[in-house]
Amino acid sequence: MIGVARVYRWELAKLLAQKRTYLGLGTAMIVPVIFVVVLQFQSGGPTDVPLGRYIRDSGVVTPLIVLLFMSIWGFPLIAALVAGDIVASESHNGTLKTILTRSRERGQVFAGKALAAFTYTLSAVVAMGVVGVIAGSIAFGFHSFTSLSGTPVSAVRGLALMLASLAVYVVPLAGIAAFGLLVSTVTRNSAASVVSTLMFALFMQLIGVLPGTESIRPYLLGTQFDAWHGFLRTPTDWTPVVRAMWVSAIYIFVPLFGAYLVFVRRDVAGD
Amino acid sequence: MTDAAPVIARGLVKRYGDIVAVAGVDLTVEPGDVFGYLGPNGAGKTTSLRMMLGLIRPTAGSAKLFGRDPIVDGVKALEGVAGFVEGPAFYPYLSGRRNLQLLADYDEPNSSSLIEEVLETVELRDRAKDRVGGYSHGMRQRLGIAAALLRQPRLLLLDEPATGLDPAGMRDMRDLIRRLAGEGLTIMLSSHLLYEVEELCNRVAIIRKGSIVYEGQLGDLLATATTSYRLKTRDPERARTICLNQSGVENVTIEGDELRFSADEDAVAALSVALGQARVAITQLVAEVASLEELFLGMTGGESSDHDRQAVAS
Ligand SMILES: Nc1ncnc2c1ncn2[C@@H]1O[C@H](COP(=O)(O)OP(=O)(O)O)[C@@H](O)[C@H]1O
Ligand SMILES: [Mg+2]
């Protein structure tokens, strides 16, 4: 465990020293700001999405609306940017052979990397949420708003529900990151991994909107990005939340385990 | 287990599809050796070292370090072992010191208390705060040695440590390796440059197209070598006749007033006596430095490049 913790710490340090980390986190933070600024100059709003009509009622709603817009490719791209790179870049630079000839087992190195990729993913979503609430509250105030069931929600309770929503949202996003780790490990090519991870996310969304896929829709990764809606109903609808947990768990652990097996056995040769 | 030899490779094979990178390597590195692993580019040196370090799986055979197989024992097999293959690689966006701090944290026991000392050893202390991205090739090689020394190894595996360095850098690298060997480290280093090995190593293995063609004492190898000589005398014509009649003196040619021939040490000794007895005054008798080179060319099928010969001359 100490071994994994040491690797994890350094993986975070490496992320903090790389531009792409700030590109991802910066994007996650700038999108809600742009969103709020644009709404300040326009009279309309995103009335066609859930909660869209209440966007001007309270700053607490802002991150939730941004979540909806960033689900298609925004957050998947942000997650892929690091998860797709974290193993591949070290294969490419040759640093993998440097760290694998010390005293850490390959499994420990992989675990540290996976944890770091998930931590970054979580950070991006939290960063968006924090910036979104602040920007939204400056623009629209910190007020109560109306839930998806039409009942009023106080500002403070809304804030708690928003945080719970972000937490539930991160879980399927971790599924995207896990897929990114798998392709990163298998292809050893950073750009290819980022692109194919994004493609995977878009594909998941796409088959969810095709006619005839209704029966499998609840089990697609893309669907789980809407699970947090359950928190904004009265009473709370736990069904989509619970399903998001176990469905996402499959999407996380299957590629993660595959990536682990490849990582511990693979040849580390120049490529 | 600790009294097992530092490196024992037996029947080591690595295939990549149809490509046979290493066809069957047997070699033993004894404690205290500075072992030269010689072969032209593409012979399979790096691939062999990768297998020894557990970075790639052998297709067949095994490599054991102090009796432990990295495929079976994982990183435990690397206890007391350090090195690099194909040029040491670091995180370009971190400083040299920070790279070492990272690697020290990956060591068991943690080796961070040695960082300043190893930076001093490789003379990188005043550049340690700079990003590795801005380092020269030579500085990276030295940082690679520093990273290896952090582990306080009993065995160092170095893949072409002096390749690509300028003459001064190469001399520094050689001095460093000699000093480390003097401190009792066992060192295995690969090279496609003979003169590096000639100066540093007591034992060598020569690999050609994935197979070992010679393993043994460097001295034994040199003794069997027929060395080429340049001879200048006051009477080149008579000297030539004597050379042609002297047994063990081969390939006699004449260029102006200078004779060239190849011979082993005993034959040269006999020749000088014969010249003296015939009262042919010798003004110069010089052995060509490329001795091992020629031997090597013969063994490796003449694949050595012009680049090597230039480097020998420098
Ligand atoms: N990962 C790889 N995939 C395919 N062929 C390889 C790989 N690594 C090495 N080779 C081939 O194996 C041979 C030996 O390579 P190498 O061990 O790097 O030689 P050396 O270090 O002696 O120059 C070369 O022909 C090389 O092209
Ligand atoms: Mg090589």
Structural class of chain B: alpha/beta
- Fraction of helical residues of chain B: 25-40%
CATH superfamily of the domain at 7-80 and 153-223 in chain B: P-loop containing nucleotide triphosphate hydrolases
Strand content of chain A: under 5%
Determine the N-to-C terminus distance of chain A.
31 Å
Tell me, briefly, the overall form of chain A. globular
Radius of gyration of chain B over all CA atoms, rounded: 23 Å
Please tally the β strands of chain A and state the result.
Answer: 2
Give the N-to-C terminal Cα separation of chain B. 44 Å
Number of helices of chain A: 10
Order of helices and strands of chain B: EEEHEHEHHHEHEHEEHEHEEHEHH
Textual characterization of the structure:
The complex is a heterodimer of chains A (271) and B (314). By secondary structure, chain A is mainly alpha-helical. Chain A is built from 10 helices and 2 strands; from the N terminus they run αααααααββααα. A two-stranded antiparallel sheet of chain A has the order 1-2. Chain A is globular, with a radius of gyration of 20 Å. Chain B has helices at residues 45-52, 70-73, 96-105, 115-121, 137-149, 167-182, 194-200, 218-224, 236-245, 265-277, 291-300, 306-313, and strands spanning 7-16, 19-29, 34-38, 60-65, 81-84, 155-159, 186-191, 203-208, 211-217, 227-233, 250-255, 258-263, 282-287. Chain B has a 6-stranded mixed β-sheet with strand order 5-6-7-3-8-9, with helices on both faces. A 4-stranded antiparallel β-sheet of chain B has the order 11-12-10-13. A 3-stranded antiparallel β-sheet of chain B has the order 2-1-4, covered by helices on one side. In chain B, a hairpin with a 2-residue loop joins β11 and β12. In chain B, α4 (115-121) packs across α5. Chain B is elongated. Chain B starts with 6 loop residues before the first strand and ends with a helix. Chain A binds chain B through residues 3, 6-7, 9-10, 13-14, 17-18, 93-95, 97-106, 265, 267-270, and chain B through 46-47, 50, 53-57, 74-75, 78-79, 82-94, 102-103, 105-108, 147, 151.
